[in-house]
Structures are given as structure tokens and as C-alpha cells.
Write a structure and sequence with these properties.
The complex is a heterodimer of chains A (52) and B (183). Chain A is mainly alpha-helical. Chain A is built from two helices and no strands. Chain B is globular and about 50 Å long. Classes of the chains: A mainly alpha (52), B mainly alpha (183).
């Protein structure tokens, strides 16, 4: 589910980039970036704060 | 040196075709060889999806340094993830994760691709710096539209695939079956 959300997030950013204005697309892009970074910290190692 | 907005848009469409090719090859390996992507592999696919946002903005709204900035950020994130996976399997004797393509594992190719994207964005900023708000975006044709829709369709398919693979819970570290298909 966690990766599904990440794909949907960037899919939405693409859709907004294509159909909407650049500003909402960039905003959703940054949300996705932060979320993906959190997922990375969770999966890259079991020694980082977000890992469990 | 100067690059016309039309040339920049064409170049960005080609970049989108490149990203689509990467996602298609990964999909082909997943389906043809039944190799389910691991969490770090999935994160690299997510980073490729992020990499496509900047070029789509350029095609739709015209060239801008902000769009290249998004490419840089996505490439750094992708490089971080693929670099981590390369390091996990760097010790001598480690067979690596999954199949190899032309002698390199997919995460190694991904690292090369993200580094290439970073270099390409850097070169564009140095040699062909676009000015923000250069006016109306250039007219786009079938090639550009097809590039955008192809990459969006592939991201949607990846979302569906990962839902089938991981279900509604956390993804296993070494997935061997589609959770929602029960085998």
C-alpha cells in the first residue's frame, strides 16, 4: 500500500503538470519527494529512526 | 549557445520515452521472468516516475530552470536509493539481487540512469539555460502527447501492480508472490 500511494502521488503530480498549473504539480511533487524519502529511510536499513 | 523552446520540448519528450523504456523493461522482467520487485526496486521505479514530472511541465508550460530543478531532485533521490542497493551487494562473492542485464543488475543500471539524468540536467543548465517565464509554450504534436500519456499509463500500471504485489499491508523484503492474487 505504501508504494501504491507513492505511485499515485507522482501520477497525480504528472496529471496536474499536464492538465493543471505548474504550482500544484510542484507542490504534489515535493509531498511525494518527502514521502519517498521517508519510505527510503524505512526500507534502506533497520538502523535508522523511521525503520521498523 | 541557445536552444529554442521547440527543441527543448522535443528533447524532454525523448527523455520521457527513455523513462518509459526503463519502466517497460522492468515490467517485462517482472512479468516474463516472474521476478517481483523488492522494496528498494519499487522505490527506484517511484523515483523514475518522479523524474518524469519535470519534462511533462516543460512540454506543457515551456522550458524553465524550475523544471530542471525537479529533475535534479528526483535524480538525486533515485541515485540515493539505487546507490544504497548497489552498496548492499558490493562485497565480493555476493550474487546480487535479481537478474543481470548486459552484465549489470537493474539497480546498477538505475544508478547509471539517475547519474545520466543529473548530468543531462546540469549540462542543460550550463549550456542552454532556459529563462523562467519565457512566454507561451511551443505548440506540441503527437510525439510529445504520446510521450506524456505513455509514461502516465506506465505509472498507473505500476500502481496497480504494486497493489497486487503488496496488498494493503507493508511490502515484504523479498516478495515471492502477489499478495492480492494469493500465489
Amino acid at each position: 500500500m505504501e508504494f501504491f500511494i507513492a505511485f499515485i502521488n507522482f501520477g497525480l503530480a504528472m496529471w496536474l503538470a499536464w492538465r493543471g498549473g505548474p504550482r500544484p504539480a510542484v507542490l504534489v511533487f515535493f509531498v511525494g519527494l518527502a514521502y519517498t524519502l521517508a519510505l527510503y529511510l524505512r526500507h534502506a536499513t533497520d538502523a535508522l529512526p523511521l525503520s521498523f | 549557445m541557445e536552444m529554442s523552446p521547440r527543441q527543448a520540448v522535443t528533447l524532454n519528450a525523448l527523455a520521457l520515452y527513455g523513462i518509459s523504456a526503463v519502466l517497460l523493461v522492468a515490467f517485462y522482467w517482472q512479468l516474463a521472468y516472474d521476478e517481483l520487485p523488492c522494496p528498494l526496486c519499487l522505490l527506484q521505479r517511484v523515483a523514475f516516475a518522479a523524474l518524469a514530472v519535470g519534462p511533462i511541465l516543460t512540454i506543457r508550460h515551456g522550458p524553465s530552470p524550475h523544471h530542471l530543478g525537479l529533475v535534479v531532485l528526483a535524480a538525486v533521490l533515485g541515485g540515493l536509493i539505487s546507490g544504497r542497493q548497489v552498496l548492499l551487494h558490493i562485497l565480493p562473492g555476493d550474487a546480487g539481487f535479481g537478474s543481470a542485464l548486459l552484465g549489470l543488475h537493474f539497480y546498477s543500471w538505475a544508478f547509471v540512469a539517475f547519474a545520466g539524468a543529473l548530468v543531462a540536467a546540469g549540462m542543460m543548465l550550463v549550456f542552454f539555460p532556459p529563462k523562467a517565464g519565457e512566454g507561451k509554450p511551443p505548440a506540441t504534436g503527437f510525439i510529445e502527447h504520446a510521450a506524456v500519456w505513455l509514461v502516465m499509463a506506465l505509472v498507473a500500471l505500476n500502481a496497480l501492480s504494486v497493489l497486487l504485489e503488496c496488498g494493503f499491508s507493508a511490502c515484504p523484503a523479498n516478495p515471492v508472490q502477489y499478495q492480492l492474487l494469493g500465489g
